[in-house]
UniProtKB/TrEMBL annotation, chains A, B:
Domain HTH tetR-type, residue spans: 23-82
InterPro entries: Homeodomain-like_sf, HTH-type_TetR-like_transc_reg, HTH_TetR, Tet_transcr_reg_TetR-rel_C_sf, TetR_SbtR-like_C
Keywords: DNA-binding, Transcription, Transcription regulation
Source organism per UniProt: Streptomyces glomeratus
PROSITE patterns, per database record: HTH_TETR_2 (PS50977)
Phylogenetic placement of the source organism: Bacteria, Bacillati, Actinomycetota, Actinomycetes, Kitasatosporales
Record-given protein name: TetR/AcrR family transcriptional regulator
Segments of the chain annotated as binding DNA: 45-64
Pfam family, one: TetR_C_43
Amino acid sequence: MTAQPFPVSEIVAAQRPHRKDAARNYDALITAAREAFAEHGAEASLEDIARRAGVGIGTLYRNFPTRRHLFESVYAGEVNDLCRVAGQVADREPWEALTSWLHRFVDYTVTKRAIREAMDDESDIFLACRESMYQAGGPLFERAQKAGAARTDLNFDDLLRMVAGITATNFLDDAQRDRVLGVALDGVRTPAV
Amino acid sequence: MTAQPFPVSEIVAAQRPHRKDAARNYDALITAAREAFAEHGAEASLEDIARRAGVGIGTLYRNFPTRRHLFESVYAGEVNDLCRVAGQVADREPWEALTSWLHRFVDYTVTKRAIREAMDDESDIFLACRESMYQAGGPLFERAQKAGAARTDLNFDDLLRMVAGITATNFLDDAQRDRVLGVALDGVRTPAV
DNA sequence: GTTGAAGCGGAGGTCTGCCTCCGTTACAGT
DNA sequence: ACTGTAACGGAGGCAGACCTCCGCTTCAAC
């Protein structure tokens, strides 16, 4: 267990309750919510989530006073994971490191359908998520730019939103999503002179 | 008024009722629904749409027995408009024609938030919409490919979904959306040899 | 102008989700 | 083992959306 330098990681750790049964329920709720959000988007029924988790609706509300709290916790968990992945690819070639991280982003993120909304949210947690993503992915992008592999007339926010858009889109299959992401990323590449 | 060769155009024309008051209400409902879908996505409240249109909920249901019927009609109207635009750009340079049509797509479409779902729907009307989009935009793409301006290792469906993804994404402003779309389309361009 | 049919609208029944409240249960510190 | 407290869970009240039904209105054909 290494140190977690990202703002979001503290938030993630601080939420989980101490008592044994409470912690178990908390985990079950996060898991169930991840599934439900993946299937139905951020509007998934909270009572359904509680049912899936095998806990009462009251327990859900005690842990997460609002729908937003719950969604934030799920999303923050995913962002936290992705930030750690960014460290793991740092030793590769600049362009390879960047694109493999972005591919991971679209494949891993299960809250796909709700990402667009999260991009514009100004609450503390979403700000921390974005801040963490910048800290984790920004250096990969800058390194690719400095290496002459990525064009310099767009910024990291542009790139992240482009990838988020592709992430949130339905494709016929994973092969098509990969193909399309590859094409879009080719546009980010510095054109051959 | 020229002939409309697209499958969707017949559908659009056939829906509108004959009687004067009925036609007026129909138009008001389509307009109100366009607004509501733009604001709240495809799950917008039907009672709210009827209120905006200034008609009773019963009138809404008589014209559109289900939410799907209403959404299909709004969407088909937009597709119909876009298909006509495709004819208007056909005299430009191949690459210019294609990209200006696609920019028009992201700017004009007001049902942005619901497009992703429409891409995968198998109902008659959505099939007709997609068929029409292929008839209208496919030739622009093929012409760009034949002219050596667009790469040949992706198909028109790939392209449309990529653009739809960017369309449905929230950006900070229109300039960012345009910038990102431009970058993604650069990826579609044949790389300089 | 008459008249029949097409169209109108909204009251109201139903369903589903949200959220609170409180009697019961299970944990953990002593 | 005991016990205070934190956590549990689901009944139930509330809100809002869906959709039907039917008495009233408006159109347009004659």
